[in-house]
Every structure is written in structure tokens, then in C-alpha cells.
Amino acid sequence: MAVATDRETAPEVRPGGAAQVSFDAHPDGYRHWRLRLDGEIAWLVLDVDEAAGLVPGYELKLNSYDLGVDIELYDATQRLRFEHPEVCAVVVTSGKDRVFCAGANIRMLAGSPHEWKVNFCKFTNETRNAIEDATAHSGQTYLAAVNGSCAGGGYELALACERILLVDDNSSAVALPEVPLLGVLPGTGGLTRVVDKRRVRRDRADVFATRPDGIRGRTAVQWRLVDELVPPRRFHEVVRQRAVEAAANSSRPAGATGIELTPLRRAVTEHAISYDHVAAEFDRARGLVTITVRVPDEPAPSGPDAMHARGAAFWPLAMTRELDDLILRLRTNEPALGTWVIRTVGDPDTALGYEKLLTDRAGTDWLASEILHYYKRTLKRLDVTSRSLVALIEPGSAAAGMLFELALACDRQYILDGPPIDDEDSDERASITLSEANFGAFPMGNGLSRLACRFSGEDEHLAWLRGEVGRTLTPAEANELGLVTDAPDDIDWEDEIRLVVEGRAALSPDALSGMEANLRFVGPETMETKIFGRLSAWQNWIFNRPNAAGPDGALRRYGTGQKAVFDRKRV
Amino acid sequence: MPTAINYQDKIPNNVDLSGDRRLQRALEGWQPRFMNWWAEMGPALQTQDVYLRTAVSVGRDGWAHFGHVAPEEYRWGIFLAERDPDRRIAFGEHQGEPVWQQVPGEYRADLQRLIVVQGDTEPASVEQQRLLGLTAPSLYDLRNLFQVNVEEGRHLWAMVYLLHAYFGREGREEAEALLHRNSGSPDSPRILGAFNEETADWLAFYMFTYFTDRDGKYQLGTLKESAFDPLSRTCEFMLKEEAHHMFVGTTGVDRVVRRSAELIREHDTLDIGPHGGIPLEIIQKYLNFHYSVSLDLFGSETSTNAANYYTAGLKGRWQETRRKDDHRLTEDSVLLDKPTAEGTWQQEELPALLALNLDLRQEYIADCASGVKRWNKILAEHGIDFRFALPHPGFNRRVGVGAGFHVTPDGTIVDERTWEAGRSHWLPTSEDLTFVRSLMHPVYERGKIASWVAPPRNGINGKPFDYQYVHLA
């Protein structure tokens, strides 16, 4: 074809290639959302700036979104939890006429490399899960006020909300048109949430997900695709009323003052990213990142007032934000760094002191509760990160309680059984300390603690471990208790670790991603594990098949006016 | 006890209605609802009868019958143009294959959507025009208004027939929804924006029938090319009736211009308002408004949907079969003028397949220009220097590349302030509308006509202008 279309030029502009994607955002600088605060109700209004795509090559028409739009949404959900404890209900709606949201931008998807698509889907899934987390645990109930046509990822965003109100104008519909129009799946939990969360009967879900034009009106309510229809003239009023009702049931404290999420301090070089408490060093030759999380010297303050006063500088929150940002940046900007080694540095007792301040007040102090939930969500990010994760516990590490949870999130854990490598005369030794928090404060997506997952079906062993809470465990004891993969001594240590890392780098990255994802989630399935599992397995398979991504596939041909050519063999 | 409908008498048709039980069942439910809709939303003026054309067959020797009919007893019929048993698909990836007599499952949703959108416009204009009868400038015009209205009603029937006959239960539900949406309703508006604007006066009516119904003509023309043969044949027949609506618009504006020209000559001033005429600059403003709103109906210049419809064979180009290309358009490109943030127009090359709305709009613009030429000729004949002009396609647009830009009628891109400052020179102001409305007094006396419009050259169906076209109730 003589004409260069978006579709053909986009892959050259590799998203995340030339320019690093930043996840920094602030409501003052949103291009695509408006956050309006109205007492106990917040209005999140999607009004996408067509011309402000994150990467050149596509226009964000009809309130469709790309990673940039979702970065702002994530920022908004976080700020609502920390900066606005007064908000008890959040209304997600559109600022455009007759369009709620058309979902992920198809030209962006069609023009993106595979790892970009998957990473994008993963991030958007995490934000939708966070929306449900806010509704479940934070007393901030999300409502979708669907004031226009709502398709694909637009409906999936609505599905993440607790209640869906659809405007009854005889034309606005909800739809999941991915299968009929694009030859791919609704990849942001759409299918799972329709049947598992909203309990739409499976045959109806089948009809719904194969109709390009979706379902509107009474049928949408009867099938439970939406909760309620509202006439246009009463729409705003009824939406507000539902938000007020949701707010009335909120567990949010009255009269609380939020804390400001101040900009992160971050230094980025070619070989490292460092923050106040978290740092990452890259070894590109070995495809390796070493992540270090530091415990401050200063002990935890004595009471919650000081925690509130420190706000975003309070160590557990500051560290979690930095870790969160680092994970997102590494996943998006450094796809070739396939192994992450995770270390901690600092006094374990100091770390436990901070933890105790939080866990003691989790039921009574909103901020303590928010920080714990945030750390939980950040650990979940690690669980679904397609990198090999290796924990190293050395003398000087702080493998205690919530920080030991980082090691438990890894695929393997190694503890040095001996003196520090650079000081063989020292009598400092590595150790692990379990806390109550390791037994349920930070559940994985499958609803289990990482320890329960690690020792699935071994209740006696779990009980034994519980008896060890608070005791400083030696490397040999940790090994004996099954808390680590191995405990090499100081003579073997460097070689052992080098072999682990080099061996890892030699294996197929695809097979590793698949294997790790299989092994990490021992135990039952939940909606969350299904969403990620099916995204990884089915959607990624479909994304790679010629029927979707080949030159004549549905995804590539969408928008050209030409029809997809399918290989009709069922696999 | 429900009375059985005698289908052949009540509903003239060439689709074997009396032998089709499925269709009968569907229409039994729908017909009373249509009648309720007509009573509620149809013309507000009560009449005994109107001299109307009724479609009674599709043959070459007279497809219509003229006579005085009470509008509620009008026989809305179902007619498809005659079937060509050898017709083949003219374009897209099915080019050369026989046309479809049934809806292919693959295209069911798309075809249904196309028919619903088309169907939605038909009753909309009846709703928009429901009060006009109260201010008709003559019985002749009143009759034309009724004719347009009943035929829009029949076009609704035509689309409903397709929904009933080919789209099952969902089709029946969509057919009902066509009566539930209403023009300008805040809760349940018509699908397309232009059909939610009130047709406030008779000049607006003429402009609407000239510009907006002409969009309908072009849309029907593309559906006439459809591979779905019943849709093609339905639209072909509708185009026949649509021609009269164009005629009402063309001659209606002609007559207003002629009258204004006469008054200008008679009083030797362009300011003919005080003499009961409509000043030429107000006519130009009406033209600007109706033309630009109608351009929005063509949708965005680049359209994936239109491309998909074309490739699938659902909707072709205007006069597809007369075009000399491969009828697939996978290799061709076209140029589109796009406004830029710097205030210039830039040409962008894009695949022809994605620019089908632009293609259709260009055909339409050329057609509109012929009307302007006609009206200017009338001015020239009267020795008046004023000339009408179509505004730039970017002017006053809410859809497409011009949306969001401020473009003057001559195509200059300006900032919002400048544009707003010029608005009252380009679009009807509330004073203009009030003035035109002040002229709108009904003239129901046979052979008489209002001050602001000239009588037609000829009557309807060979009848004179002073014929008793309408008996008021």
C-alpha cells in the first residue's frame, strides 16, 4: 500500500524504547481524567485527550485508553485512598457525550510489541483489582455511571466497580466485542467477572461476548450485566443518590485528614535507579537487576500521631511507594532484565518496630490499614511479575516479618550461613524472623498467605512455624524449617549464587515465565488468579497466533476495512 | 376480540404479506403502535382529508395513486423494487457472488445496525415537523408537508419490514424501539444529532428537505448497492419517493428566493423584512446552518465502520456500478484536507477504503451546489448582485476533522473569539428566527399564499395551484 498507516509505523516506535515510561502523575497534570471532590463522593471523569497518546501513532478516539490513561487512573485510585480519607464513594463516569469508554485503543494494541501488550494488560488488571480492593477494604465504594456506549475495556472498567448504572436512552449499550471484532479476548478480567462476579449465566455470557453491538436496556439488567437503568434526565441525580447510599455504609472514619503523596525522589541512570529506601542496579550483560530495600536507622515512632505527621515520609509507606514505582518501571522499561535479585539491608528489629506500629492499629487507624493494604498490593505485583525472582539473605539483611514477605514472594530464597563475604572475622550472621503478619496480613491473589501457599496441605508445619513467631532463626534453622531453598556457607556462597543466576539466564524466558506462574500460585483459584492466569495463558496465546496478530489476522486488520483471514483449524 | 386485519387492503404490498404468517404476526403487534405514534407524534393540524400520493405497486406503468385521503387512513404499504434474479454483488470481498436473499449470520449485527440507524431518521423528521401544518403558507404547501410526512412514515414501515422479516425477535424489539425514541426527547432522543433539532419554520422545512433529506438520498443510494438484496430493493423504491422530498426542498427555496427577489425589485431595497419578505442574508444563514448540520450526518471523514461495511458488501458507494475501479479499494488512496493547530489546511493521504464517508460527502456537496446555482440564477434574472454560496465543509462542524476547530464559511481557521464574533453574520440569530417566525401565518384559503413565498409554477399531478388540496377538519 502506498499509504503509511498508523498500524505500520507504530511498531518502529517501540513503546518504552527510546523514552522511558514514567508512572508519575498528579491530578493537576492529568490529560485524560478529571478528579472532582464533592465531600464524601469523588467523581472520576474520563475525558481522554485524543491527541495525547503515550506513544505516537494512534489517536485515543471515543475515550479509548492506553497505558498513559491508565497511569493517571492508578494515580487517582491511590490518592483517593491516602489523600482523601473523607471520600467514601467514587463515581467513575465519562466527560464525553454519549460515549462512556471504548476500551483499550486498538491501534495502540495492534501496533505494540507483544511484551508491551501483555505488560499493559497486566497493569490495567492490577488497577482494576485495586479498585475492588478499595471497595472491599477501604470503605471507598466504586460505582460506574455508564452515560454512553461502553465497550470492551470500558465495560471491564465498569465491571471492577461495585455497581453499574446504565443510562436508559434507548441506544447506549454495554458490550464485550473483542471476540467478534478483534479476534482476541476481553483481557482485563471481562469474561471472568461477567460469570464469577456478576454471575451472568454462562450461555448468556456466551451470547453477550459474541455480539459486536452488546446489550442494552432491560435485557442488560435481566442478565445482570448492569444493576440498574436510569433515564438520562435523572441520571446525575440517581447516580449521586446511589453514591450517597454507598457512602452511608462506609467504614471510613469521620473527620480524618489525608496525607499528601509527595513526588518520589528518584535518580535514574543507565545502570541504576535509586530512591531514598530502595535501589536497583542493572547488570545488563547478565540480564540481572539487584534490588535492595533498606530499613532506616531511625526506629519507628512511638505512636500513630507521628506516623500521620510524617505522612509520605513514614518509612513503610515511602518504601512501598518506591518499590511499587520500581516494579512498574522495570516491568515496562527493562523487559530484557529477566532476573531480579531481591535483598534487604538494615536492623530486623527496627523493621519489626515499624510493622508493629501498623499491625497494632490496623483496625483503628485508617492510615495504618491503608499502608498495609498498599504493601499487600505491591507484593501481589511481584507475584505476577514475569521475571525470575531470587531472594538473598545475608548478614546485615532485615529478613523479618513484612520484609521477609519479599523473600517469600520470590521463586527461590538463599541465606548465607556464615560471616559476611567481605569480613570473615565478623560474627554477624544472617537471620530470619517470622511475625504474625506472615500468616495472613498480606494474602496473595489466591487468598492465602505466602507461607500457607508454600506449605499447602501441611497444616502441622504451619502451626509449628507459628510457634516460632518472634524468634531469630539461624540460617540452619531457616533451612530446616523450609523457609529457604538453600543455605550455602561463606566459601560456597558466591559461586552458588553465580550459578543460580547464570543458569537462570540461560533458560528460555518464555518457559520460565510460564513455569514460575504455574508454581507461584499453589492452592485454590480465585477470581483474581483466574484473571491473571487466563490472561497469561489464553490471551497471550491468542495474541501470538496468526488469527489475531498475523498480517491478515483480526487484530492487525481491524480498522483497515479489510476482513481477517482465519486458519479454521481448532487447536 | 381482536379484529383480523385484511392485509392486502390495509397494507398494500408486494411481499406476499397475506401468505406470510410470521410477518403478519409481527405487524399485528406493530401496526397499532405505529398508529398510536402517528396520533401522538404525527402532524398536529387536524384535517378531513389531504390529496395524497399512495404507493400501490412498483411496476413501470404507474406505481402511485393520487386521491383525497384522511391521513390516519393512509395505506402505508410495503414495497420493494422488482427483483433482478441475476443481480450480483458489485463490490467488496464478495464481489461477483450472487446477492443474498437472507441475512448472513456473520453480518447480522452490522446489517441490523445499519437498518436501525436509517429507520430511526424516518419517523424523526415527522416528529420534527409536527407543528408546521399550523403555519402553512398555502394549501399546496400543506399538502406537500403531509405527503412528505406520510412517506417518511412509509419509509419507517419499509425498514420495519426488513427488521420483522429478517431479524427475528431482536428485529421486532428494535422495530418497537424506533417508536420509543423521539426527536428532541431528553430521555430517549433519536440516534443522530440533526434529527433532534426542531424544524421551527417553513424556511427551515424547505432547507431541511433540500439539505437533510438529500443526505438521506445519498445514504439510501449506498444501501441500494447492498449485497443484502431485500435492503437494496427496499432502498431503491424509497429513492423514488425521496425524489419528491428533494423537489419540495428545491422548489420551496426557489419560491422563497423568487419572492424575496420580487420584493427587492418592487421596493428597490435589500431590506425587505418590513415588506413581508425574507432578506437574502437570512436565507444564506439558514443555508449555512442546514448544510453544515447535514454534513455531520455523513460521519467522520475516515471511518473504519464504513470500510468494514464496504468490504463486507453491506453498503457501497454512490453509483457503485458506474465507477471504473476494482470495487475493492485495497490499493487506492485519497487526499483529505485537515485543519492544523497552526491554522492552515494540510492534505493527508489516506487509504481510499477508510475515506468512504468523504467520498459520499463529496458527491453530496456537488449535488448541493446545483441548488445554489439555481437560486443564484433567479437572483441574476432579477438583476440582483447578491449570490448564495455553500460554506466551507469545515464550517460549524461537530463531527469529523473540522470538529473542535473554528472555521469561517470561507474556510479560514480562526480562534474561538473571532469565530464567536462572526457567528451572528453566519448563522441564524434568535432575532432572525423570531423574525422568520413572525411571518409564519397560516394561509388555508384556496388559491392564496403567504407574503414571503411565491406560488409554485405547477400544481400536483396536473392539478392547478388553487385546487382544494386539503380539507381542514
UniProtKB/TrEMBL annotation, chain A:
<protein>
    <submittedName>
        <fullName>Enoyl-CoA hydratase</fullName>
    </submittedName>
</protein>
<feature type="compositionally biased region" description="Basic and acidic residues">
    <location>
        <begin position="1"/>
        <end position="11"/>
    </location>
</feature>
<dbReference type="GO" id="GO:0016829">
    <property type="term" value="F:lyase activity"/>
</dbReference>
<dbReference type="Pfam" id="PF00378">
    <property type="entry name" value="ECH_1"/>
</dbReference>
<dbReference type="InterPro" id="IPR001753">
    <property type="entry name" value="Enoyl-CoA_hydra/iso"/>
</dbReference>
<dbReference type="InterPro" id="IPR029045">
    <property type="entry name" value="ClpP/crotonase-like_dom_sf"/>
</dbReference>
<dbReference type="InterPro" id="IPR017633">
    <property type="entry name" value="Benz-CoA_dihydrodiol_lyase"/>
</dbReference>
<feature type="region of interest" description="Disordered">
    <location>
        <begin position="1"/>
        <end position="20"/>
    </location>
</feature>
<dbReference type="GO" id="GO:0006635">
    <property type="term" value="P:fatty acid beta-oxidation"/>
</dbReference>
